[in-house]
Amino acid sequence: MSRLLGRRALFAAGLLILALLVAACGGGGGSSSSSTSSSSGSGSSSSSSGVVEVSLKDFKFTPSDIKVKVGQKVRFVNTDSVRHNVVQATVEQATSGPYGFESPVLMPSDSWEYTFNTPGTYPILCSLDGHYLLGMTATVTVEQ
After folding, report:
1. Which helix (H) or strand (E) holds 65?
2. Whole-model pTM?
3. 2-143 CATH, one of 2.60.40.420, 3.30.70.640, 1.10.530.10, 1.10.1040.10
């Protein structure tokens, strides 16, 4: 039993090292121009009370506990030197889905907006290059 746990720990450490190596190489070649795309969530539409901005940097969403009202828009901005994305999924769903929504790949300085139209709690993460394994996860809470 302890041999199996040791192998699992070694495998997890190897995955973490691989994710770090891939992440270090993942941001090269992108243009410095900013591209912005937008998408809306499902459900009924209502007026927003301002845009909430979330930074994607250092394998974190900042803030990581995001609170918005129904109909409010969240702008995810990649302020990092590597590429990221925003996927509405739990860590368990990260590799297989299903995803509630998924942004395009955000190169450094890119941003993407999503409007939350349904109350609830939405786990999000970056599924690129195993960034979620490094703790790049957050929660969006949408209230009436």
Report:
1. strand 65-69
2. 0.68
3. 2.60.40.420
